[in-house]
Every structure is written in structure tokens, then in C-alpha cells.
């Protein structure tokens, strides 16, 4: 179980670092090519090459704050 927690923390830290650098490519690299994203409202999206574009859009709309990692 510790291995899983460490892996999740590692991914969370990488996401936060990429987000704070406004690095959409770094964020997109954390997602599987054939993964699925389900947002809190239940909308689904297959992750593929458009993941980077969605990350860029997300960064544009959320530039007024920064993220920090930690569970």
C-alpha cells in the first residue's frame, strides 16, 4: 500500500509543478493515451492527443492561483 501512496504523491507533485510552470505538455504527459477523465459533474472524455489542448485551456482559465502537492 505504501508503494501506491508514494506513486500517487509523485504524480500529484509532478502535476502541481507542471501546473505552476504553466506547462501543459508536462501535465498531458501524466495521462495515459487511452485513459478516461470523468469530471465532478459526471461528464466523460477519452484522453488522447487533445489532452494537451485541454490542459492549456485549463491553465489559461486558472492562472490566478498556484497548486501545492500533498495528501
TrEMBL record:
InterPro entries: NTF2-like_dom_sf. It comes from Bradyrhizobium jicamae. The lineage of its organism: Bacteria, Pseudomonadati, Pseudomonadota, Alphaproteobacteria, Hyphomicrobiales. This is Nuclear transport factor 2 family protein. It comes from the Bacteria.
Amino acid at each position: 500500500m505504501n508503494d501506491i501512496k508514494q506513486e500517487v504523491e509523485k504524480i500529484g507533485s509532478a502535476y502541481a509543478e507542471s501546473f505552476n510552470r504553466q506547462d501543459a505538455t508536462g501535465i498531458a504527459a501524466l495521462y495515459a493515451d487511452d485513459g478516461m477523465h470523468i469530471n465532478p459533474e459526471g461528464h466523460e472524455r477519452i484522453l488522447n492527443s487533445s489532452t494537451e489542448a485541454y490542459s492549456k485551456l485549463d491553465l489559461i482559465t486558472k492562472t490566478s492561483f498556484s497548486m501545492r502537492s500533498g495528501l
